[in-house]
Amino acid sequence: MSDVSLDDRGRLTLPKEVRERYGERYHIVQLHDGIKLVPVADDPLGALRDEFADVDKSADKLREDAREAALDEAGR
């Protein structure tokens, strides 16, 4: 972990090792006790396709399965 500071214009410079590992673009998420930088892929849709390439079910089927599981867990 590294400590970094904002410059006089409010910019934050990430260490080279961080940029090489996670990339150049980040989404800032505000939490109740701080912030989190979430890397954004150069091609976000491509990254999603890669992440879910092994999923054989449609979005509708996944949604229905999740609904059924939630109802079961709630004691339907």
UniProtKB/TrEMBL annotation:
Domain SpoVT-AbrB: 4-45
InterPro entries given in the database record: SpoVT-AbrB_dom, SpoVT-AbrB_sf
Protein name from the UniProt record: SpoVT-AbrB domain-containing protein
One GO MF term attached to the UniProt entry: DNA binding
SUPFAM superfamilies referenced in this protein's UniProt entry, alphabetically: AbrB/MazE/MraZ-like
Naturally occurring in which organism (per UniProt): Natronococcus pandeyae
Highest taxon of source: Archaea
